[in-house]
Design goal:
- By secondary structure, the chain is of the alpha/beta class.
- It has a domain of about 220 residues: FAD/NAD(P)-binding domain (3-Layer(bba) Sandwich).
- About 35% of the residues lie in helices and about 20% in strands.
- The protein contains 14 helices and 19 strands.
- Strands 1, 2, 8, 9, 10, 11, 17, 18 and 19 form a 9-stranded mixed β-sheet that branches. An 8-stranded mixed β-sheet has the order 5-6-4-13-14-15-12-16, sandwiched between helices. The protein has a two-stranded antiparallel sheet with strand order 3-7.
- The longest helix has 17 residues.
- It is globular and about 65 Å long.
- It binds flavin-adenine dinucleotide.
Length: about 450
Amino acid sequence: MSLTIQIQDYAYHAMTDPNLDPNRTPPSLWAATAPAAPSTSPLPAGEHSADLAVIGAGFTGLTAALHAAERGAKVVVLEASEVGWGASGRNNGQVIPSLTRADPDVLVQAFGAEHGETLAVVLGNSANTLFDLVRKHGIACQAVQNGWVQPAHRESRLALSRSRFEQWKRRGAPVQLLDRDEVAAITGSPYWCGGWTNPTGGHIDPLAFARGLARAAISAGAAVHTHSPATGLQRVGERWRVATPTGSVIARRVLVATHGYTGTVAPSPWPGLARAMVAVRSYQLATEPLTPELRASILPRNHALSDTQGDLHFCHLDGEGRLVSGGALVFHADFERRLRERISLRLVKMFPQLQSLAEIRFEYVWHGVFAATPDKLPRFWRLGDGVLGWGGCNGRGVAFAVALGPLLADAALDGEAAARKLPFEAPRAIPGHVFAQLGVAAGKLYYRWLDGRD
Ligand SMILES: Cc1cc2nc3c(=O)[nH]c(=O)nc-3n(C[C@H](O)[C@H](O)[C@H](O)COP(=O)(O)OP(=O)(O)OC[C@H]3O[C@@H](n4cnc5c(N)ncnc54)[C@H](O)[C@@H]3O)c2cc1C
């Protein structure tokens, strides 16, 4: 009943906001710059067989499909909207080989030494995994692997920088600890007081990357069907029937890769899954192209940047010299006007040289949701016999989702031995999920308060 109300509510808002409408491409910078998507169509009527049915054509679903098809499996991808329509095609494009708060030692603490270290290795290699795919498949997506930097906004956060640097260094990552001057040289700004960097990170046009992955998956033999929401899963003997409004897929294994969009654009393919995570909205903006002088002075080595604030300050330059940034809002009403004002002030604070502009003009404003968990840890789900999934990127999943897709495909196709590599569990509803959005708003206020104190 509450799911029906949720979907009806979503459909109502989708009429007025193109960011929510699965029949429109979100009005992002990437929609304007990405090459066209490969030609796809809805699942034809009738029953279709597959070794692996993948639900959701974001980075998780597409890299899983590509990998499984390259292994020779018969793969069918079902996407409720278009390729990359969820978080994957509308994020900031930062390729970061770490999570927001689940640092490697935290992963080990939470999942045990074996699973925790496995996840740390996958995560630590994830940016290289992504850029290797770009190179291997020749994906035109403005890929820049010049490093990701996390500068500290207060002296007190330098302890966090050092801790993260040490945890990754111990695991062999090519990370560097940076003093104030080194950070100023990378950022082009005196705003931060030190930090750390991982040179394997970088940035991409994420929609172009998603579309390139889809093209590669199709070339490898996968069938990708758009505007084909999976409306339910039903056991049929040893296999699963995945129903869509047109046809259905009878598959040996199923990967549910609907992540933060579970139960929004379409019913959740698995009952209760949407209550195992919380959808958190993130807003993105891109300026008009900066003057050559400003462009040369801001992030002069073309890094991706996201700092230590809970109310995250982040940005990078696109190929045309636009500053691609964004932020969080506590409430959604009048978001566009409020964001333009808020992020203008923020960018001038981060890069004082922007004061030379009479005003910062934004060409694109858009938003999307990612899946969060109360403890900021990702979750790996065994939903049914041969049905797997994951969720809870907590805002940092571009590289991680790309690296996880093939692991999830292997775990689904190869059964128990492969599945033991990841800490799969049954999904558990978050207690008080109905009040989760209040908790998210309170959390944002708390982080803002903390950012100014510790
Ligand atoms: C605005 C924003 C900015 C972000 N910025 C960054 C960043 O800079 N760096 C970073 O590391 N991370 C970032 N993230 C997080 C990152 O984008 C995600 O972790 C990642 O894209 C998740 O990929 P996914 O494939 O698992 O899920 P998604 O890309 O969300 O894909 C899920 C797909 O499932 C589809 N779907 C849902 N229900 C059904 C159904 N029933 N049947 C069929 N299909 C269905 C949806 O339409 C969607 O396309 C950001 C997220 C957002 C929202």
